[in-house]
Specification:
about 725 residues, alpha+beta, Methylamine Dehydrogenase, Chain H, 4 domains, five-stranded antiparallel sheet, 15 helices, 31 strands, about 40% helix, about 30% strand
């Protein structure tokens, strides 16, 4: 070859080498960029969870003094204002009047107060003579082409006579069908309850039934100071000036009220009572400004109201509560005109604002929870726009114990959906993290010893011909789709393990004993009698021992012990000790362990085979046995590779989705029991994300859990690589 040809070939080789380096570097940078991009996308979707609440002042209407109550349509365009002269609708933007309604009952007596039940669409005008004029209001939405128009409606019913003289702390409720209820405190402190129900006749509306009750507090020290009535008119709560809360069950119209129970909520006078969304939790305000939340908890005779949350207190006595119709946000106002925004589940107070030093006459939470109205004594009607997209998510709800409505104590709970709009979301990530760790632990407990010992046998003791068969066969196991493994685990393996549970445990106990016994016998036999025991015969013998151990466990020892100790049914006995689920951690350990065995086996076998042959030969030449050589020489030298295999298997188990999705029952509990299920982060994302509304709290929390999973695997892999490098550097110095 001529010199010029050599130069040309050399230049071409250098060019290809340079291009190869560029392409490899570009590919590596592309991988890094892709991983970083995924991380940034997940972080961007989860970041809004950290956003707090913002309040923006909107429209302001100067109203004549004497306004008593207010309401607003869902789009924030039209407001209702009740005053001594009746009810008027106005545009919020320019204050233009859309009409005034004055019931006939106002012609002879003045209006002393107005009460509102926004969730019922009910307005009550409290008259000075002890009557309440109930009305139903609504905001109809119409579209003229693309132009939206709000058409308010208001209709009044016949007045309810509640009691003689002025009424205090009055309220009116409607169940949405035929029952109208009202409660108030009389001038002498008596508790007045009125209920009206339109009965159904044979061919149409029947007679109107009406109840009137005057109640007194039995066995309580204080005098009534606040009342609360639920929507269907079946529960009446009364607060006293000694901090006590009493409860009556009202039953149906015509039934006598039944005194239920009482409890002391505070040492101060109860000044305000209010329901939270769903009317299971009750907000309590007292004269010292405390804001407490209680609900019924406990079992049987121990069931009763428990104070579950102490929200941030006011500086003055609490006057009223208004709850959101969409979530568990709660507005409270005190005697000094300060309004605070709380979230009941999280116990967090998002906003505090002094709005009218002269006092607040009425509050109204917007139907979409995107703002509220404040009717001040001196500053008229103010509208505030509220932006608080994820009030139900805090660090406490994600990683701490929370006392949820109806629970006996604070707990870690994941429950993202419920059967009604009143549902209280539970977004604790602790059960998911716990389930991920639990499933990974049991999978590695099964897979790690099996894979490492199998790799050690294949690399050090199996014949070359057997190694050529075993290693490809195990590697082919890795090609099985995880959905097939999950399907088999959930529908075939789980019922099989439940039926033969006794045999499974005794098999795991008898197998090592049988193998060790066979090894002990082999060690006692003369070498001349073992010449026929080659690698193939040894493998066949081990297979026979496994079959024999299985026969003993499932056919003899297991059933005998089950009859002797567990009454013939181990499954039933376990039910008395712990909860047993068919799809449990034992099934996950076998199924997910089977999925990661090929991965760990392959890397471990390669690491063991890569140990220099002169080390093995030197050990054997010095008189060490093959087993001593494998354990004392080969295994320590291959430890970096084995550690890498373990960490890669750990990462595969942490990120496994289909096996844990199909074989665990997806139970989000924090229990190490082998017989209970679990819910892993990956499986939870697969189940919940398709149903999560875009940009909702659930949607964001799922991305946050994905970010945690991403960070966990990244951290584990980084630490594993550092440890592996240190082990390799240590071995290189030997």
């Amino acid at each position: 070859m001529s010199t010029s040809t050599k130069r040309t070939v050399g230049a071409r080789a250098r060019l290809f080498d340079r291009l190869g380096r560029y392409f490899i570097a570009l590919g590596g940078l592309g991988v890094i960029a892709a991983v970083l991009g995924i991380f940034l996308f997940i972080a961007r979707e989860a970041l809004p969870l950290a956003q707090g609440a913002t309040l923006t002042a909107g429209s302001h209407l100067g109203l004549p003094s004497g306004a008593l109550a207010t309401a607003m349509d869902p789009y924030g365009e039209v407001v209702l204002v009740a005053d001594a002269g009746g009810v008027e609708f106005r545009r919020l933007g320019d204050g233009q009047s859309l009409g005034r309604t004055r019931p006939a009952a106002l012609d002879s007596v003045s209006v002393a107060a107005a009460v509102l039940a926004p969730e019922d669409g009910v307005l009550g005008l409290v008259l000075a003579d002890g009557r309440i004029v109930p009305g139903k209001f609504a905001f109809d939405v119409r579209f003229d082409g693309t132009q939206r128009q709000i058409a308010p409606r208001l209709s009044f019913e016949d007045p309810l006579w509640v009691g003689e003289g002025p009424l205090h702390a009055a309220l009116v409720r409607h169940d949405g069908e035929a029952r109208l209820s009202a409660a108030a405190l009389g001038a002498a402190g008596q508790i007045l309850v009125v209920r009206r129900e339109q009965r159904e006749g044979l061919l149409g509306p029947g007679p109107v039934a009406e109840d009137h009750w005057t109640l007194t507090l039995p066995a309580l020290e204080g005098q009534p100071s606040a009342v609360l009535l639920d929507r269907v008119g079946r529960q009446l709560l009364v607060g006293t000036d000694r901090g006590e809360i009493g409860e009556w069950a009202l039953g149906d119209v015509g039934d006598e009220p039944v005194w239920k129970s009482s409890f002391r909520a505070t040492d101060q006078a109860v000044t305000a009572l209010g329901y939270v969304l769903g009317e299971n939790s009750v907000a309590i305000g007292d004269a010292a400004g405390q804001v407490l939340v209680c609900f019924k908890a406990g079992q049987g005779a121990q069931r009763g109201f428990k104070i579950a949350h102490h929200l941030e207190a006011h500086a003055h006595a609490v006057r009223a509560f208004v709850h959101s119709a969409r979530d568990r946000q709660l507005l409270s106002v005190d005697a000094g005109g300060e309004v605070a925004l709380h979230h009941v589940t999280t116990g967090k107070t998002y906003l505090r604002r002094q709005l009218d030093p002269a006092g607040v006459a009425a509050l109204y939470f917007a139907p979409k929870a995107d703002g509220f109205l404040v009717l001040g004594q001196s500053q008229g009607l103010q509208h505030f726009a509220l932006d608080n997209p994820h009030p139900d998510v805090t660090w406490q709800t994600l990683f701490g114990k929370v006392w949820y409505e109806g629970y006996d104590a604070p707990a870690y709970v994941w429950q993202s959906t419920g059967g009604s709009d009143d549902f209280e979301p539970k977004f604790s990530l602790v059960p998911l993290i716990f389930g991920t760790v639990k499933g990974t632990f049991y999978a590695l407990l099964f897979a790690l010893p099996l894979a490492v010992l199998a790799a050690l046998y294949t690399a050090e003791f199996a014949s070359p011909g057997l190694r050529k068969v075993v290693k490809p066969a195990v590697e082919m196991m890795a090609s099985l789709p995880s959905v097939i493994l999950g399907f088999l685990a959930g529908l075939w393996l789980a019922p099989l393990l439940e039926k033969g549970l006794d045999g499974v445990f005794f098999f795991l106990l008898l197998l090592p004993l049988v193998v060790l016994a066979a090894a002990w016998v082999k060690g006692r036999l003369p070498a001349a009698r073992l010449r026929w025991l080659g690698p193939r015969a040894e493998l066949a013998l081990l297979t026979g021992l496994v079959v024999a151990a299985g026969f003993l466990a499932f056919g003899l020892v297991g059933p005998w012990v089950e009859r002797l100790l567990f009454g013939g049914d181990l499954r039933q006995w376990l039910g008395t000790v712990t909860r047993y689920e068919q799809r449990n951690s034992l099934v996950v350990g076998f199924a997910m362990g089977f999925a990661i065995v090929p991965l760990i086996f392959t890397i471990c076998e390669d690491a063991l085979s890569a140990v220099p042959a002169h080390l093995r030969a030197g050990s054997l030449a010095l008189g060490a046995t093959p087993w001593q050589t494998a354990v004392k020489v080969i295994l320590p030298m291959a430890l970096p590779g084995i550690f890498s295999a373990t960490m890669i298997g750990f990462g595969r188990a942490v990120g496994e989705t289909m096996v844990v999705l199909m074989a665990t029952g997806n139970t989000p509990i924090t229990d190490w029991s082998l017989f209970n299920g679990l819910r892993a982060i990956s499986a939870n994302i697969a189940v919940e994300l398709p149903e999560a509304p875009h940009a909702s709290s659930l949607y964001r929390v799922l991305f946050l859990s994905g970010l945690l999973l991403f960070g966990l695997t990244f951290l584990i892999n980084t630490v594993a690589e550092l440890v592996r490098q240190r082990l390799r550097d240590k071995d290189s110095r030997l």
